Amino acid sequence: DIPLSREQGHYLTHVLRLVAGDVVEVFNTADGAWLAYLTDVGKKAVSIRCERRVSDVTPPPDIDYLFAPLKHARLDYMVQKATELGVRRLRPVMTARTVAERVNLERMRANAIEAAEQCNLVFVPEVMEPMPLAKVIAGWEAGRQLIFCDETAAGQSPLDALRGLAPPAAVLVGPEGGFTDEERRLLRGQDFVTGVSLGPRILRADTVAIAALAVIQAAI
CA 184, CA 31: separation in Å to the nearest integer? Predict the structure, then answer.
């Protein structure tokens, strides 16, 4: 029998109103998804027993999502949508115009898990520690292309600009106020960076997560 955390037990027994013997599907990023049923259901503890595996771990294409952190509600939304759209890693990047000074990594992980549960994903993206943009670029992984969402880029179709893109890759989205001129020069000076425009309109930073990841998945 596998004991659940207090939060998991509360969700199953008080929110979903499950009782001992009821069937659930559970997963982790090591053992895949399993059909299980509730065994011990008490006021302080809930346990499950795994019966059989129904799916292996299914990681998405190797794409990182780098972003300037947003304030709480918009960050929650962005993390959920990036998880649904299939990123391997969520990487907060601190830029000159980043509004949020602190990043609640546990809250980000909880939102990623919730999105994975709701969408039947058998994978949860890794949530990484925030890093300054210059440090991220200086330590960039060889062989990984970085797609830089640049509203000042030429109006070429993003699909045409990304033709031939293959994982491993990453996408970078800036803060609400955009990148500074110095940050743009830094990014454009790297041979592993490709700047793309997502269209004629300026998008909110949380909307870009959906637009950019949809375009990248269509291109690979």
Answer: 42
